[in-house]
Specification:
about 500 residues; alpha+beta; C8orf32 fold; 2 domains; five-stranded antiparallel beta sheet; 26 strands
Length: about 500
């Protein structure tokens, strides 16, 4: 049930702290989580004529209830020597699944992208985000601004692995004595705050020498401390520890919840931790109210799917049309997905009944409830028939889109009475489908476990198309709030 898009957040934290190298070389960094070495990162920069090629490689290994999972990514950006984007490529290994995406920026600022998964290619186009820079552009900007204390500036950073732009606010601080694996060095503190549509806010603190070389970076990750420290190649690539993340992915519940299927609604009062900032989405089942005392009043009242709705959707609402399109993680136009969707829906013409049938079909279809999967697309789940909650969610969303029902993947936390010895609200993913004018929650993973599906014990933190970036808000939110109180209203 419980999971998180670990790699996306790790790569994000790494990317905003990578060294601004002055010449062709490879920089090695050891990656630590809660003080344990869990992986390594390296950056390579080389100049070829009028092009600068920068590659960032990350590899980390974590554990979920004793299941080790290694995730890797390689991002390569190609830019002109003055920092203009030319092309990019990213390859991500998420458990047993490999995803690739590449893009070329033409003279008119149009990006031709190709995504590859399981040997199948998907092509698309997008305009290059105005003003966005990549690795070399960021390096040049940091060199231009320098290290004078209190210098502050903003920029937009495009991350190839997430194919998304993040707004960055960078502030230069004072020099401090910094511990580098036992060696204390005086370095300049640089604080970078990233914001994105599904991210909320992530702040990283880096420490650089007078040549602008980053030697250490620290960022929060689900209430834990994520560190990168520049070091010798042999240490960076050396032995690693194992960190169990399940406990970090839970929010304590002030009281035990029983018989959630009878709850018409639950009101939650959330209290942000000191200095924490985060965002929560409003959906048809979730309303968010910011109180004068700084707390958040959250009401979860699950919308029921009413009979009589039709499909496929034939309206012109841009948001709903976007929720019908195939994506690189929701391949709703693939032959196998279409065939499964038709099999699931059968002969019904009612949208609510079709969605219920899809939810029940996916609950039975995924046979191996495995925590060993990093993150799989719908097509990969259709083939492997394994995964945990996010695999249930992406397959459900893709099947809905395949028959013309707008759908989205929701990332958040959901209440469980016992998961690996933990009780409370753990990281989770589910689906919402647009039925007869309302977004209705579907949870094939919980239905598969016998719980019944979506209920008022689900708190949404982000809504999107199943892209890894959509899950970033979980990592930037978990550990930043607590549930102080809640009130359950039972169905009459």
């Amino acid at each position: 049930m419980t999971r998180i898009r670990h790699l996306s957040v790790v790569v994000l934290a790494l990317w905003i702290g990578l060294p601004a190298q002055a010449q062709d070389e490879t920089e090695y960094l050891a990656v630590f989580l809660q003080g344990k070495k869990v992986g390594h990162a390296l950056e390579t920069r080389r100049v070829e004529g009028d092009k600068v090629i920068t590659s960032e490689d990350v590899s980390i290994t974590i554990s979920r209830m004793g299941f080790p999972l290694t995730v890797k990514t390689n991002d390569t950006s190609v830019e002109t020597t003055d920092g203009k984007p030319l092309s990019f490529e990213s390859e991500q290994l998420l458990g047993f699944v490999t995803m690739k995406v590449s893009g070329t920026v033409d003279a008119n600022g149009l990006v031709e992208m190709t995504s590859t998964s399981m040997g199948a290619e998907r092509k698309s186009t997008m305009p290059w985000p105005e003003g966005a820079i990549m690795a070399e552009g960021l390096r040049l900007l940091t060199l231009e601004k320098g290290l004078k204390a209190d210098t502050a500036y903003t920029t937009s950073i495009f991350m190839p692995s997430l194919t998304q732009v993040f707004d960055a606010n960078i502030v230069i601080g004072d020099k401090r004595n910094v511990d580098l694996l036992g060696r204390v060095v005086k370095l300049t503190e640089v604080t970078t705050t990233l914001k994105g549509p599904a991210l909320g806010q992530v702040t990283s603190t880096s420490y650089v020498d007078d040549d602008m070389k980053m030697l250490k970076s620290v960022a929060p990750l689900m209430g834990m401390e994520f560190e990168m420290i520049s070091c010798a190649k042999e240490f960076a690539l050396g032995d690693e520890d194992v960190v169990e993340l399940i406990g970090a992915m839970f929010v304590d519940s002030p009281t035990r919840l029983n018989n959630l299927s009878s709850a018409a609604s639950i009101t939650y009062w959330l209290a942000p931790n000191a200095g924490a900032e985060f965002t929560l989405p409003t959906t048809d089942s979730q309303t968010v109210e910011h109180l004068a005392d700084g707390r958040i009043k959250l009401v979860i009242r699950p919308v029921a799917a009413s009979a009589g709705g039709t499909f496929p959707y034939e309206g012109n609402d841009p948001g709903l049309l976007a929720a019908l399109k195939p994506t690189r993680f929701l391949q709703s136009d693939s032959e196998e997905i279409v065939a499964l969707a038709r099999k699931a829906v059968g002969d019904t013409q009612d949208a609510a009944e079709a969605a219920r049938r899809i939810e029940a079909f996916v609950a039975e279809y995924i046979e191996n409830k495995s925590l060993s999967v990093g993150y799989a697309s719908a097509a990969e789940v259709a083939s492997s028939r394994q995964g945990d909650c996010s695999e249930f969610a992406v397959l459900t969303a893709a099947l809905c889109r395949a028959v013309g029902i707008p759908s989205q993947v929701v990332a958040g936390v959901a209440y469980v009475s016992d998961f690996g010895g933990h009780e409370g609200f753990g990281g989770h993913a589910w689906t919402q489908a647009y039925i007869d004018g309302k977004w209705v929650g579907l949870d094939a993973a919980f239905k598969s476990s016998g719980r019944g599906g979506y209920d008022a014990g689900h708190i949404a933190l982000a809504v999107g198309n199943g892209e890894p970036a959509d899950f970033l808000n979980i990592a930037s939110t978990l550990g930043h709030f607590r549930i102080e109180d809640m009130a359950v209203q039972t169905a009459r």
